[in-house]
Amino acid sequence: MLLALGTAAIVLVVLLWELARPDALRAFAALRARLQRLRERARSRESAQLGYDPGRERRAEQRARELLRSCIDEYDWAMYRDLGFLRLWGGLGERAHAAGASYAYLIYPHRPIVAYVPQTGALLNEYCVAFPDHSRPYGSARLPDSDDVLAKWMALKADERCLIEQANMHLPGRQIDPEQVRRDLARLTRWERESGAGATDIVRAA
Amino acid sequence: MKLLRMKPGHGEILLAEGDVEVAEQEQTLIEAFRRELDAGMWAAVPSERRDGRREAELVKSFGEVPRDAERVIFFPRAAGGAPRSAAGRTAR
Q1: pLDDT < 50: residue spans in chain B
Q2: Of A51, A66, A109, A198, which sits 20 to 30 A from B21 (CA to CA)?
Q3: How far off is chain A from B50, nearest CA to CA, in Å?
Q4: How many structural domains comprise chain B?
Q5: Does residue B49 fall inside a structural domain?
């Protein structure tokens, strides 16, 4: 009698397990994935806390400035150092790559590239373009300021049409106050006059 | 030749360095170059014209890199910035 009851109990348990197994396995897998997620979250929180370094961005910018300086003309470097932006002559117009070019760009760090007419100061367009690093090595996809400027400068120098095609084009004033740009152009004119380097640049660029 | 990559929060990092005239080192450079391109990077070669003006050239394969180039700089490919919702005029 006991043997029969025991056998029946075992068979019942096995049957119940067979019925419940798919659900149980699913629940187990979900639980394991959830634990894994919790562990990863805790690890990334821990590493973010441990890896926090208030001087990192400053050092990164310092390195980026050195790289920028080593890639562009001395004159352009001085312009960026003193004014915080670069001017680049447009290369697609009738009079290209010269001080008398049909148009020019102002390159700001992490702001749109502004196209304007050098002879009149009239603003043409804003080109919004970014270089996001999706690997986010330190939690951010943003390059240091000077790296952003160098990336824009290299891309414009190498393949202006390609970069402009990649950018979102807007009328002036979309992101940058046109008055600010006019003030920057006035600062640039004054800077070139005071440094006496403008004439040199025109001669070199022509 | 040095292969450099711009990196957020760090500035540039040295990916590989070698002499393109030494086959083994050239192979190392080629492999590092391909890895970056596969990761979606753009590659630029800064250079200097005879008149002293600085230039840059975008290259799509290691074969396009001038043999005498000192550096190749990798940076993330350009994407149209400032989505409409995020766009807002700023003045410094």
Answers
A1: 84-88, 90-92
A2: A66
A3: 12
A4: 1
A5: yes
